[in-house]
Amino acid sequence: MGKNKRIKPPFCPSKITGRILEPSSDKVFNYNNCHPVFCVRYLENDYGLDQCTKDQQASFAKALRKRSLMTWHQIWSADRHGLGAEKIARDSIKAPIPKHITEDIEYFIALRFYGKAPMVGYRINDIFRIIWLDSKFTLYNH
Hints:
alpha+beta, YaeB-like fold
């Protein structure tokens, strides 16, 4: 195989458009075999980075990096209080649910970022949209 041949990643079949890999729309595949993509665009101010200590902020960055090396399947298989995940019922959330989150999001996902402190959000395909950093354990009953 020549040096200039590009290989599709073993997970997440993609097509190459220019220099960016984009998910193929012509194939249905299992996003659990993909590495997560993290989105902080919708992070709520009341549960954001400014409510976290410097140590918690650093741990948040490290937690994202560690999980970016895992697949969603590996995350779901790991311990929920370690690098794993757990489902949180929508009606368990004590904070207001942002208006952009539609009713079809039936549950949220908690991933730990500082000890047992969770980042909470929702997943569509391989993208995890982080909504809350629950550094003070007030978002839901733990």
